[in-house]
Predict the structure.
Amino acid sequence: MEKPSNLLLKLSRSLFADSAEKEKFIHAVTNPQPFNPAILWLQPKPTENPFNLEQVALWQPEFVDRLVLNTKPGKHSLHQAGHYYCLDFSSIFAASSLLTITQPLALILDMCAAPGGKSIFAWKTLNPELLLCNEVIGKRIGMLLSNLKRCQISRSATMNLDSKILAEKIPETANLVIVDAPCTGQSLLAKGDKAPGCFHPVTINSNASRQKRILA
């Protein structure tokens, strides 16, 4: 168990008036838990699944498999061949709201697309005529391009533009806009990863300003 920093304690006090909820938040951040990996199938599933699976959740899309702990799907040859995309099960849950869309969509714009999970989920689910994958942060473009190419995402284009420019040049064009705005990375701590400075007020305010600019 990692000792909570003063910045984390201060943040917890600002977020939760109830002491029990505050303690749950601190415990979740300072006590990393293992998370099951998931894969989003882009090609037909093989007759014999190469992975051991967890029980299917009630809301889980049929083209998604949740794998047992410690599975490494990224090292399998099917991954390199673009048969599936690896992502967190929590990301699947967040993106599953797209399953409620029933009408055909001509153009989908993913404003903060890297590394590509939400874009690929939208492409698989909604089959748009064109998928525009934008990434504001230039150094993240490479991973986005690589994943889209590996997964053979057709009828798609990749951009590196500020949201203000897109709003000026192609206003009211997309049928659906997806925004997974950049954040401080605090949730990474609950997964056992590092996120230096994620609770610092400067980091929080900087990300909040960037989120407001993107959403505006």
The mean pLDDT is 91.
